[in-house]
Amino acid sequence: MSPLDVVRAVTGDTAMRSRLLLEWRIPRVLAAALVGALLGLGGAVFQGVFRNPLAEPYLLGSAGGAALGATVALLVPLGVSQALSLPLLAFSGAWGATALVIGVARVAGAVDAAGILLAGVAIAAALGALRSFLMLALSDDNVNLQVVLSWVLGGIQTPTWAMLGLFAIITAGCLGGTLLFARGLDLLGLGETMAAGFGLNVNRFVAVAVLAASVVVAAAVAFGGLVAFVGLASPHIGRWLIGPMHRPLMPATALIGAIIVTLADAIARSALPPSEIPLGLVTAIAGGPFFVVLLARKLRS
Q: Contact 126/141 with Cβ under 8 angstroms?
C-alpha cells in the first residue's frame, strides 16, 4: 500500500481498504514500535546496572515470569476475557519474578549486581520448568498448545485504539521513569566504589533500578510476547551513535528498539504469506550473530 493510501485512511476515507489500514494495520505497526521502545529502554537500564554489554532484559527471570503468567491465562479458564487476563497476568508474572529474584539475593546476602544476576538465572530456570509442567498438565483437546507456543515465541497482536492509547501512556511513563536513573547509571559506570564516593547508595539503587527495568520489560512482554535480542542490540547501537551518557542514550535506544521491532514485525508478517513467522524467531535469527560478534569483541578486549 502506498503512502497515499495511508493518508486517505487517516483522513476519513470509508473504503474497505482504508478501514483495514486504520483498524488493523496502523495499530499493529504502532504497537510494534512501542514494544521495541520498551525493550530498548529495559536493555539500556540492565546493561547500565550490571556494567555488562552482554546483559539483556531476559536475564533476571522477567521473561520467564511473564511466560508463566501468560501460560496460566491461556490454559486456565478464569472467567474473564483473555484480552484482559493475558497482559495482566504476564505483567504480574514478570514483575513478581524479578521481585522474587531480588528477595532471594537479599536473603542469600548477595545484594551486588553479580549476585542478583546469578539469582536471576536460577529463578528463570525454575520458572521455565514450571511453565513446561503446566503446559503438559493443563492442555487437553480443547486447548491448543500452538496458541501458547505462538505467544512464547513472540508476536504483536493488533490492539484496539483504546488499548493502544493506554499502551502509549505506559510507554511514555516508562521513558520518563528510566530517565530518572540516568545519573545513577552514569555514576555506576565509574565503578561501585567511585559511585558510592559520589553519594550513591549502590545496593539500593541496583535493586530499585532492576525492579523498574523489569516493569518496563513486563509491559513489553505483556503486549508483544517474548521477543529476544532487541534489548541487547538497541543499547549498543545507541552507544555507537550517541555515546555512553544515559540521559541522551535512553530516548535514542527507545527509538532504535522501535525501528528494529517494526521492521522485524513487517518481515514476520510478510515473509511467508499467508502464514506468519513468530516475531521472536525473526529477532533471534538476526540477534544471534550480533550477540556472537559482541562476545568476540568483549573476549578480545
A: no
SS3 130: helix
DSSP-assigned states of every residue in 172-210: HHHHHHHHTTHHHHHHHTT-HHHHHHTT--HHHHHHHHH
Question: Taking every pair of C-alpha atoms in the chain, what is the biggest distance, in angstroms?
Answer: 64
Q: What's the rounded Cα separation, in Å, for the pair 212 and 67? A: 19
Give the Cβ contact number of residue 191 at 10 Å.
12
Distances (CA, A) of 25 to 9, 30, 70, 81, 232: 11, 9, 24, 23, 27
Most confident of 44-53, 103-112, 129-138, 174-183: 174-183
Per-residue cell: 139? 492442555
Say which DSSP state 245 is in. Answer: -
Instruction: Tell me the per-residue pLDDT of 200-228, one tens digit each, with 9 for 90 and over.
Output: 998 889 888 988 888 888 888 888 888 88
Pull the grid cell for residue 268.
Answer: 514476520
